[in-house]
Amino acid sequence: MRTIPQAFKTHLDGQATTTCHCWRVTRRDDVVIGFTDHDRDLSFDGTNFLAASGFEASESEQAAGLGAEADEVAGGFSSAAIEEEDLAVGRYDGARVELFLVNWTAPDERMLLNIREIGEVVRAGGRFRAELRSMAHRLNQPQGRLYNRRCDASLGDGRCRMNLAAWRGEGSVVEMIDRSRLLVSGLSGFADGFFRQGRVVFSSGLSAELDGHGRRQDGTAVLSLWLPLEEEVEPGRAFTVTAGCDKTFSMCRERFANSLNFRGFPHVPGSDFAYSYADGERVHDGGPIFE
User: Fold this and answer.
1) Which domains does the chain show, CATH number per domain?
2) What angle do CA 90, 35, 52 make, to 5 degrees?
3) Any idea what DSSP says for residue 195?
4) Mapping DSSP to helix (H, G, I), strand (E, B) and coil, where does residue 138 land?
């Protein structure tokens, strides 16, 4: 049940009201930004809510039960609010959005209308439109772990426990061949293909998954990306690149010598095996079926 402060309730019961909406966006890196559709900035709870940010909300339908509700918020890019680059690199993915109804003549009189998470974001023509999902959408997401032949840890995390110091390199961009290929320097000490399926992080915070790593005779290398970059990367931009893992038991054992920390189930038979029948060609000695 939503609680309305008595002073705010008295204001709402009056013949004339002075209310506006305020959004407080909390990113996963704990950066907090506030916006309002009022014509001047407001401040409460230690957050400044910026006016003239171009923020506007769509109509929203509320329903009883645990169905995942969703609405939208739209806005424009500005240096004082949200920058297009921040959205491009995913800094607002999964951000928490609190929507308040506020008496702009007395910001202490307010109420929390709902809490959402940012879902899909569409950018076009200097503006963005972000889907705001209710917290109930988490109930539709898989929880826990699955029995899978591939590892479900991330390379180098607390479950993998792999020290990535020897699997990481640093360099700088020589040329952006196109949005999917970069000519780089600084990786001459690594073999051809060493960083295939890895990840590159630029000094600006932009990151990308790698499809390939080709070493050239002059000491430079070409990094091929899985997806085209959202923005241009100028020559001289520094980066850090980390080798990748295809999550298979064979790579974990043979390349990284980390089979004790493999977080998959490589010896669990798949559905094809479950529907097969015993034949005279296989060795049935109770040993592992898959190497």
Assistant:
1) 6-140 (no CATH), 165-242 (2.40.30.20)
2) 110
3) T
4) helix
Reported as a single tens digit per residue, the pLDDT across 149-184 is 899 999 999 999 999 999 999 999 999 999 899 999
**Identity of residue 116:** R
Strands 110-124 and 127-134: antiparallel
Helices (H), 137-269: 249-254
The sign one gets for the Cα dihedral 164, 170, 176, 181 is negative
Residues 6 or more apart from 37 whose CB is under 8 A from it? 20, 21, 51, 55, 56, 57
Do the beta carbons of residue 229 and residue 250 sit within 8 Å? no
The rounded Cα 215 to chain-centroid distance in angstroms is 30
Q: Which strand (E) or helix (H) includes residue 130? A: strand 127-134
Q: Which helix (H) or strand (E) holds 254?
A: helix 249-254
Look up the pTM and report it: 0.58
